[in-house]
UniProtKB/TrEMBL annotation:
InterPro entries: Homeodomain-like_sf, HTH_AraC, HTH_AraC-typ_CS, PchR_regulatory_protein, Tscrpt_reg_AraC-type_HTH. GO terms for molecular function: DNA-binding transcription factor activity; sequence-specific DNA binding. It holds the Pfam family HTH_18. The keyword Transcription regulation applies. Residues 227-325 form the HTH araC/xylS-type domain. Keywords: DNA-binding, Transcription, Transcription regulation. It comes from the Bacteria. This is Helix-turn-helix domain-containing protein. It comes from Myroides pelagicus.
Length: 325
């Protein structure tokens, strides 16, 4: 089972094998890759076990890139676009599929070939490919949206589960981070990551089902602005912007930001900010060279006691107890 990428002159750029069916004796395969070519540089990580192939990575393009691709296998792809935009068409489905930053969907691909274009210089992507057998175990029945997708798979017709991409929620993002940062090994690592993949699939299916029943009330321009606020928060955890500051930063108003953020991500602006701060604190506390007071300071807490209280409320133990573990 292979995926091949070609340039405009039809020269083979990359050929990757997808060993989706492993024996139980081989619980997990991992591979970390760095590449540097004239057209792009980047890194990505692959994790593979029976029925599941995970690829997460970043790429920097020298200029917008358009390539052709072909594959010789059937797969269900949980697609998460974390940064960058892409446009793709396939020979079997002439309509253009576009992904913008912080969007996700589920795609069925059946021996596809086509073209894909990346329109921005930086790309951050998570793709989780599942065999149809693995995926169908978890696809609910008696739902019009899911029944339509099941019918595509049965008839071997490539397509998207949802006609409209949806926003990646903070919980989805955290599950992707959990998969990347898992430090277990062997069978225990496989059990942990498989559980995270199933949880991530559950969250995707729930959101896609709800959005299918209730369309978003905000327009595409406002969605992009709200996603830009989320991007800013994740990259500036120690900042002290007010809600008005954040709204003005992206050219919207406080009401639209509050309403749209809740609708897109299921939480408030500062609810997400605090959640991301505490998740970052947990990562920093694993470094024995950094004190609890320093972690609090780095994340913008003026009083370490306030940080300790928030940490305990979130994780059920104090920062010092977590650090000792």
């Amino acid at each position: 089972m292979n995926l091949r990428l070609y340039d405009k002159q039809n020269n083979l750029l990359i050929e990757r094998e997808y060993p989706l069916k492993l024996t139980q004796k081989e619980p997990l395969i991992e591979n970390s890759i760095q590449f540097s070519e004239h057209y792009a540089t980047g890194t990505y990580k692959e994790i593979c076990f029976n029925g599941v192939h995970i690829s997460i990575g970043t790429t920097h393009f020298e200029k917008p890139l358009s390539i052709s691709f072909d594959s010789d296998f059937k797969t269900i792809e949980m697609h998460f676009a974390l940064k960058g935009r892409s446009l793709s068409t396939t020979n079997k489905r002439k309509q253009t599929v576009e992904f913008s930053p912080y969007q996700h969907n589920i795609i069925y691909s059946d021996n596809n070939a086509g073209q894909i274009q990346w329109t921005e210089k930086d790309l951050y992507l998570c793709e989780i490919n599942l065999t149809p057998e693995f995926f169908l175990k978890y696809l609910p029945q008696d739902n019009q949206l899911f029944d339509r997708f099941h019918n595509l798979i049965t008839k071997e017709k490539s397509g998207l589960l949802s006609p409209v991409n949806q926003a990646i929620t903070p919980l989805m993002y955290q599950l992707i981070v959990d998969i990347i940062q898992c430090n277990r090994s062997g069978a225990f690592k496989r059990m942990y990551i498989e559980a995270k993949v199933i949880e991530l699939l559950l969250i995707q299916l729930e959101q896609l089902s709800l959005r299918h029943q209730k369309p978003l009330s905000i327009n595409k321009t406002d969605i992009e602005k709200i996603q830009a606020v989320k991007d800013y928060i994740i990259n500036n955890l120690d900042a002290e912007d007010s809600l008005i500051d954040l709204a003005h930063r992206v050219g919207t108003n406080e009401f639209t930001l509050k309403k749209g953020f809740k609708e897109l991500f299921g939480t408030t602006v500062f609810g997400l900010w605090n959640q991301q701060k505490l998740e970052q604190a947990k990562r920093l506390l694993t470094n024995q060279q950094i004190s609890i007071s320093e972690v609090a300071y780095l994340l913008g807490y003026k009083n370490p006691r306030h940080f300790s209280t928030a940490f305990k409320n979130k994780f059920g133990c104090s920062p010092s107890a977590f650090k000792q573990k």
